[in-house]
Amino acid sequence: MKYIDNKKITVDYRIAVKLKEKGFEQIRGEHNSYLIKEKEFANDIGYKGDLIYFYIDDETCVTAPTIYEVMEWMSMKDIYFGCHKDSYGAWHFDIYNYNINNKEPRLVHNVINYDSKMVAYNTCIEYILDYML
């Protein structure tokens, strides 16, 4: 069984763009980023959505945060999430939102089966960005 370390795996390009739109800090310097437009590097051509290992500027790149970095950022907004595998081998996600007026957290439990942990995490983060922030 392959272990996925949330501290090393970046969210996909689509999610990174949405995070930037929602105010996720763009991390300068030696941090993974995605190209948001085509860019020529010396003799190579970089294409939109390519993952590179440094951040150039806001016009060229969007930060590619790890799942862990997104978890930390969302926890500051009182939103916590995680993914789990059921007894049939399918992945699901749960979201707890403490950023509400009542004292009980709101739980969003996803019942859709995902084939992989990465798909579940990306879908979970996208759900939060689209419906909770």
Structural description of this entry:
This protein has 133 residues and is an alpha+beta fold. It is 25% helix and 24% strand. It is built from three helices and eight strands; from the N terminus they run αβββββαβββα. It has helices spanning 13-21, 67-75, 117-131; strands at 33-35, 39-41, 44-46, 51-52, 61-63, 79-85, 91-97, 106-109. It has a three-stranded antiparallel sheet, with helices on one face. The protein has a three-stranded antiparallel sheet with strand order 6-7-8. A two-stranded antiparallel sheet has the order 2-3. The termini are far apart.
- The proportion of residues in beta strands is 15-25%
- What distance separates the N and C termini? 34 Å
Low-confidence stretches: none
Mean pLDDT: 85
* Class inferred from helices and paired strands: alpha+beta
What count of helical segments does DSSP give?
3
The helix fraction, in percent, is 10-25%
Order of SSEs, N→C?
Answer: HEEEEEHEEEH
Rounded to an integer in angstroms, the radius of gyration calculated over CA atoms is 16 Å
Task: Name the overall outline.
Answer: globular
Number of strands: 8
Largest sheet: 3 strands, antiparallel
Query: Strand arrangement, largest sheet?
Result: 4-1-5
